[in-house]
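Why show two proteins at once? Because comparison is the fastest way to build intuition. When a single record is shown, students tend to memorize it. When two are placed side by side, the eye starts asking what differs. So, the first record is below.
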Amino acid sequence: MDNAKEITIWDKLQVDQAATKPKSKDGSTTKKKGSNYKIIGQLGKVFGIPFWTYLIIQVFFFDIDAYLKTALPQNTGFIVDYKFFAFLLITALFALFIKRYYLVYLYIIIYPLTVLFWEFPKLIYKFKSWLVFLGVIDAISSFFYKIKYKIIVTTTTLFGFLLVFVFNSKPVIVFGCIVLALVLIFSIARTIYLSFKTPVFLKFQSGVIGKIIKSNFTRHLILIDDKIKQSKAKKLTREQSNTVLTNLQTGLLFHRIIYFWAYQLEKYRASKISFVLGGISYIWLFIKLVVFLAFINYGIYRINPAEFKLTSGSFIHFINYSLNSLFFNETSQLLAIGNFSTAVRIISGVTWYLLLTVLVFNFIYVAKQSKDDRELSGAINEIKNQGKELEMQIKGEYSVTAEEGIKKLQDFKTGLLSLILLISSKLPKNYWSETNQ
């Protein structure tokens, strides 16, 4: 009895080899439904773009309704006041010609989400490049990094703009200018600091993957159920056998995805996309500089008009002036003639040229960092270690390595096998077996 072969989970499996093909559906019905939803999507896009454009401009920037009343021919301004009836007319037409007309309005309401989670990913997919995809994810993660701080800064900035632009009290305007100056200085310092640090996008991924792999939900998907493991039956039921194979192929799929992700991150690290993203952060800082300085200079003008010599008090001239002041240029429409306005103009130009110098040093630093960055290499190796840890779980549960598990799945013709093999084919040979330094 001591020499008897130990019974493994593989000896207990009972699975039908032949796969049953699902019944085919009526092609004409499917095609008809697809065309109907396509029309709904097109109408949602046609009406969604102008609706959200109108809403954003009307609420935040400009009173379109008031402009239209003055721009329309005489005695036709009532159209703006009675636009609700135009809405009812469009609704009636939708109800008359479209079976599920209410979905058009749902599409219009969620159109920004549609752009973010469907149109934008579809555009990225057309590039057929994982590097572009990772670059977008990097940009999004940077945007949402410390979102609490960004909400506070954005709110403070908007209140600063309001104090400078709307209120007539000089102390209030002074306070608004000081608030904007402090926010601008803080933004400059933060941009420079983050540009020299390891991208947040790469640093947090290992921890996220580890949490996913170790979560109870994932363990339920990839490990054998306790009832099946403790079963004394010589053969599992077909349902139990299918569950075992499904869990194994899910675990192997996760295993290959982890290594595929690590491999793409290695390629991303070696690419020049980090240069592009670094440049974009400085371009955004340049735009902020122009806008903030325009409001600060406008605030100075409202406090003491004698600080400037100008042909027009239009705010657009202050934007033009602030843009030129970064390069020590002057404009004929607006000139700084006071001590305080001249000092702000000089500080603006010096600040921008210092930022250009920092930008050059940043590019040199990033180029050197991409060649030898232990922190980045450690983050990627940690992701690979998560893959190794997952393989150890699979081996302890199913008594096979990842490679042996794939061969077992080939014998049973499982559904996810083709996807597992496809991902494996996109990796260098034995990439998952390489020893991490």
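Second record. Ask yourself what differs from the first in the token line.
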Amino acid sequence: MRFWMCLLIGTLFHAGVWGLAGTIRGTAYDVDGRVVRDARVLLMVDYVKQREQQTGQAGEFRFDGLAPGRYEVQIKKGRMFIFQNTVILEKAEQDTVIYAVLPIARMTDRWGVSTRLPEGVKKLAPVNSPPVVGGEVELAAPIEVVRMPYPAEALSQGIEGQVALFARITVDGTLSDAIVLSSPHEILTKAVLDSLPKARYRPMRLNGHPVACGIDLLVEFRLTEPAGLAN
């Protein structure tokens, strides 16, 4: 009897019946920073779909009651590339937020040029050249860490929070085309955008050549209580 009670309690805990299970939530955006409604969101485990939903009117999605483990989140809509992100829930009650940016898919077109083969001329057999092996990627890495002061106006008003951006690391290592995904206040937004030109990265390299890549950037502004007021 004790064994079955323990088994039942363990099952309820694993399933999150007591509210101790994790959450994966977020918002889908396009590259202009606008929310994407009615996008298909899949929650996968080992390439097997576990749940599915569509983003809401504000581009939001949410999966509750998740046991600790490794999950894949896939988002797709129409002519947009699939967004995919791996999330690891390490403990119960973990709340993970995803900022999903869906780029536009490239289109496909086909052109053809044809004419009549002259008399006495034979078609050459196609020559199959060996494939060029590639796919060697070196991730971008920060060279100069931006040290921005806490905005005086935000400090005087007690404003704190996290600014989320999507930007592009160019081949020369600078940040460009920044899109603000979320921010608690415009003062913090301006402070981050003003500091971006100071950032320098070693660009991503593909097969030894520098290439541009996207980057999700989270800037946390946090205020701590004076020592005498700390709880």
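One difference worth noting in the second protein: Residues 1-18 have pLDDT under 50 and may be disordered.
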